[in-house]
């Protein structure tokens, strides 16, 4: 390797375990290769890692490595000096392993797992006796407690029995197995363990009898019967969701380490296939409902826009803007649109692109959103095109995003008008609306947001009915604060060229010039906020004008009520799609069938099942018969 440069292998999504001698081993996850140069800064190093890992945001990650010939202590990389030391230490090494890990919780005194651990799962921590199985497996030892234990049904009992057998490392077979009774016994001839459960008079499924004690536990379960395909799928499903490239060989190694189960490659592969089918078949089915869903949005909410565009590789883009949102933005909101991307915690297939405005109270007002597969420039361009086509011809609108360059952060250099609004927490708000316990389809995701929007608009419309002031409560409070400040100011009138007095000097710690015709003050607070500053209010007092007449209309109660004048209507049959032939195309509906081109190259095939061997028929070269060869041919040789 060239001087000042090393080859680094990035390890992401796996987990560590510690042996009895303190040596650490890394299992699972994904690996990526990259070069690291000694003249890099730590910022350049992070940028290259992010680029290698598909633009992964690294704010909540740390980077660690082992010193050569030392796999007991992880060394951190957190600044330029740490990076240079790492390159120097491994200058003679062929490769260097860098572990990209979630920031640790200070309360954890043992081994910390890296990124990829699903929320709510058990942490992988080395136990004092060196056991390789997880705590979760140990907790299954009490899945069966004894006679009288109650279950919801036979299925729940069978699941508990399965976990119990894995934890105690024995095999069993069913003697009786139906919905009303289950009897199982140990398969070991020398073991008398037997269990029976059935429905009771209270319609509860309970254990009625447990006979004998186990004498056949083994450290490793060599038989494959306990590791059924569905069970393997249920265990690895969350890992597959986070790491789609989870390899069957790693699956087999992880299950052996964590549960003591020995799986071959084919078992691990079939378990992964079932997990992928469970994860993505429902996703594909929901995607096929999108044309129907677009139609129902337009039918139940006339004036709404729903656009679906099919892409290659079974991908698509979905845009929706409800009529109530478009009407509210046009007639009552501040002329602002915040552009933001929202990551869906429960569904990592999609991202939401959102355009959000702000009402007269300073609360967020979602206008439109789009469901896309990633935050690419192409998807943003498509989203803005759909947004432009959905909105009527408005006046000047200010767009704000988290990609504004630094020189535009200051009001002094910002060309648009924010009207006192600098941030928008739409990501947090919509993220709170979306449940994180289970994965939603695209239809369910959008309809969940629609339901929350419907409730939000109704609640705000009802609360505004009690307002008696000209301005909204928050705007009225801001105006009162400026009016109190204006009491101590001194106003000097100056005459314009046309003989009308409309320009005034106002003195406090400095001299500010107020032009009541153009609604401007040299302090710029009036122009920036849309509410008169204290200098302007001092002029209004001098000239007997009403400050309410000089507030931006978006802060009035009238405009606030116009913002929420329309309602978002329910879609009652959202989970019951109609037949595709019944769909009719509305004026604002753009449906495209979700069809894709055949990809280049040979289609991927499932690996052959090792249990099925297709044999070629044997044919005799002498008699031309099948089922034998020339050496075993019994047909006599004729002269």
TrEMBL record:
<dbReference type="Pfam" id="PF00564">
    <property type="entry name" value="PB1"/>
</dbReference>
<dbReference type="InterPro" id="IPR000270">
    <property type="entry name" value="PB1_dom"/>
</dbReference>
<dbReference type="InterPro" id="IPR004332">
    <property type="entry name" value="Transposase_MuDR"/>
</dbReference>
<keyword id="KW-0862">Zinc</keyword>
<dbReference type="InterPro" id="IPR007527">
    <property type="entry name" value="Znf_SWIM"/>
</dbReference>
<dbReference type="InterPro" id="IPR006564">
    <property type="entry name" value="Znf_PMZ"/>
</dbReference>
<dbReference type="GO" id="GO:0008270">
    <property type="term" value="F:zinc ion binding"/>
</dbReference>
<feature type="domain" description="SWIM-type">
    <location>
        <begin position="512"/>
        <end position="544"/>
    </location>
</feature>
<protein>
    <recommendedName>
        <fullName>SWIM-type domain-containing protein</fullName>
    </recommendedName>
</protein>
<keyword id="KW-0479">Metal-binding</keyword>
<keyword id="KW-0863">Zinc-finger</keyword>
<dbReference type="Pfam" id="PF03108">
    <property type="entry name" value="DBD_Tnp_Mut"/>
</dbReference>
<dbReference type="Pfam" id="PF04434">
    <property type="entry name" value="SWIM"/>
</dbReference>
């Amino acid at each position: 390797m060239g001087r000042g440069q090393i080859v680094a292998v990035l390890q992401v999504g796996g987990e560590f375990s510690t042996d009895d001698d303190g040596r650490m081993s890394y299992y699972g996850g994904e690996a990526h290769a990259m070069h690291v140069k000694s003249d890099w800064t730590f910022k350049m190093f992070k940028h290259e890692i992010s680029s290698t890992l598909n633009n992964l945001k690294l704010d909540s990650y740390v980077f660690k490595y082992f010193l050569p010939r030392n796999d007991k202590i992880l060394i951190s990389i957190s600044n330029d000096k740490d990076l240079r030391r790492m390159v120097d230490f491994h200058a003679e090494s062929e490769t260097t392993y860098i572990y990209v890990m979630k920031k640790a919780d200070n309360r954890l005194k043992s081994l910390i797992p890296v990124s990829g651990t699903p929320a709510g799962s058990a942490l992988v921590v080395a136990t004092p006796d060196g056991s390789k199985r997880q705590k979760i497996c140990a907790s299954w030892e009490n899945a069966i407690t004894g006679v009288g234990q109650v279950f919801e049904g036979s299925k729940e009992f069978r699941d508990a029995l399965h976990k119990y057998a894995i934890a105690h490392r024995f095999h069993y077979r069913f003697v009786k197995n139906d919905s009303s009774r289950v009897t199982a016994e140990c398969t070991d001839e020398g073991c008398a363990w037997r269990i029976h459960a059935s429905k009771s008079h209270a319609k509860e499924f309970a254990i009625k009898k447990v006979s004998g004690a186990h004498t056949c536990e083994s450290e490793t379960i060599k038989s494959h019967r306990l590791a059924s395909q569905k069970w393997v799928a249920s265990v690895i499903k969350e890992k597959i969701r986070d790491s789609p490239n989870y390899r069957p060989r790693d699956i087999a190694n992880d299950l052996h380490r964590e549960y003591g189960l020995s799986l071959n490659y084919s078992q691990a592969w079939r378990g992964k296939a079932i997990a992928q089918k469970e994860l993505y078949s429902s996703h594909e089915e929901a995607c096929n409902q999108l044309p129907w869903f677009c139609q129902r949005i337009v039918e139940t909410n006339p004036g709404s826009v729903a656009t679906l565009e099919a892409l290659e590789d079974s991908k698509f883009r979905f845009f929706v803007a409800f009529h109530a949102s478009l009407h509210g933005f046009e007639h009552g909101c501040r002329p602002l649109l915040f552009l933001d991307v929202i990551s869906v915690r429960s569904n990592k297939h999609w991202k939401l692109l959102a355009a959000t405005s702000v009402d007269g109270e300073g609360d967020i007002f979602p206008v439109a959103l789009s469901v896309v597969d990633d935050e690419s420039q192409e998807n943003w361009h498509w989203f803005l095109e759909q947004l432009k086509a959905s909105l009527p011809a408005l006046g000047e609108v200010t767009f704000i995003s988290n990609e504004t360059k630094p020189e535009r952060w200051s009001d002094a250099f910002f060309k648009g008008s924010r009207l006192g609004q600098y941030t928008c927490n739409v990501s947090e708000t919509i993220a709170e609306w979306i449940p994180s316990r289970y994965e939603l389809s695209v239809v369910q995701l959008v309809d969940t947001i629609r339901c929350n929007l419907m409730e939000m608009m109704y609640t705000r419309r009802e609360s505004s009915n009690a307002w008696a002031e000209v301005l909204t409560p928050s705007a009225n409070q801001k105006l009162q604060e400026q009016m109190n400040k204006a009491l101590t100011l001194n106003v000097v009138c100056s005459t314009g060229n046309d003989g009308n007095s409309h320009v005034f000097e106002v003195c406090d710690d400095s001299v500010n010039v107020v032009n009541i015709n153009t609604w401007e003050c040299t302090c710029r607070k009036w122009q920036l906020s849309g509410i008169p500053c204290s200098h302007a209010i001092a002029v209004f007092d001098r000239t007997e004008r009403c400050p309410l007449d000089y507030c931006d209309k978006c802060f009035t109660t009238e405009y606030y009520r116009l913002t929420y004048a329309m309602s978002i209507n329910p879609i009652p049959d959202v989970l019951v799609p109609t037949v595709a032939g019944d769909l009719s195309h509305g004026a604002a509906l753009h449906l495209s069938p979700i069809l894709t081109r055949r990809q280049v190259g040979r289609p991927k095939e499932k690996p052959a099942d090792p249990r099925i061997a297709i044999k070629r028929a044997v044919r005799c070269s002498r008699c031309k018969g099948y089922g034998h060869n020339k050496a075993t041919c019994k047909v006599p040789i004729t002269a």
